[in-house]
Model the fold of this input.
Amino acid sequence: MPVLIDLDAAPPPAPARSRRLPWRRLRIAAAAAAVLLLLGAAAAPPVAVVFPRVADTGGRSAVAVLLTPQALVTAHPASGGDEIDVVARPLAPGGPSWRSRLSLPARDSLRLSRSGSVLVVDDELTVRILDAATGRERWAVGPDDSALVTGDRVLLTRYDAAGASELRLAELETGRVRWSRPGEAFAAVLGDAGRYLFTLAADGRAEVRSAVDGRLLGSRPLNESVDPDDPDVAVVGERVYVLGPASVTALRLADLTPAWRSPARVPMPTGATRCGDLVCFPGERGLTAVDAGTGATRWSAPEWVAYSGGVASARDRRTVLLDPATGRVIRRLGRGRATGGLMLRVDGDHTRVSDLRTGRAYGTLPGVLPYGCTAAGDLLACPQAGGTTVWRVLRTAS
Done:
């Protein structure tokens, strides 16, 4: 059965939840990397400043981590293997402090995300929606529903005893259903403007609906993909990009009609993201930038295999700042990771932290590697000694 990005004897029973296939290929281009457009400077000299520790998990390993300016939220395996503990540790006055045990296996696919006043805990099969302030369950997805969270909405698919399926779009914070229509979805993306809902059905067929009332606006097979039954698709702004073995086809999100006269030539694309006024396609053989309006190639850079907000990286973790208009390297940042306006560089057995825009050195993280670190404001969370630790970055350091 086909699947995508990140559902039998008469009368047939409702399909078991295990039929829901994992979100594997549908990529959502995030606009949240805009802060990285103000980029800066080269490698900074080592400094001796060690940041103050704010919180940690006591060495307890986490399968998922969410850092906000108010709290560190982590998910840990509980005894028995079929449950997890979700723990919120306050990082600011009035920040949430709670612990909640959920009947969810500790899979590597587990994710924590925040939307408004709720915390979403989901994996490939299950979605749980908690009050971010208290950890209590805000509302429950029905046992016969499969759920796909997209933006501030959740798309529910339910099968009846005869095998017929129904789609319902609900508000993520309250569970209030906005509309219901016949249909099913194994992947879904709500467009940036909130007007269109893009979905993939079990056979890989693409559909777009009005997000307001669920009306079907367009439908087509994605024969341009490597495997039409299991298409590889990215949604960026008002475009749907179908990734083929050596090309990319662009469709208008509003009705799924072709947006370019012919596909763009892109070798082995693996995703899509905004690249200034262009759209960039990272791939197995490098980074290609094309004109979003025409599909014409503007530049290509075989060295880089990942890109976000002006920062490109190679397979060996070398990181650079790129001019998105030309692909020219503005500054080489060394081996490491860029996150939250910070550049984290490996230096022996520790990590040097500097400002991504100015290159100003802030300090070091002894015994820490930068991979897996995430930032929120002046806070930085990284794996350390089997657990997760949060430091406060002192931006007055020099």
Observations:
- The CA atoms of residues 212 and 257 lie 21 Å apart.
- The chain has one domain: 29-392.
- The chain has no helices and 36 strands.
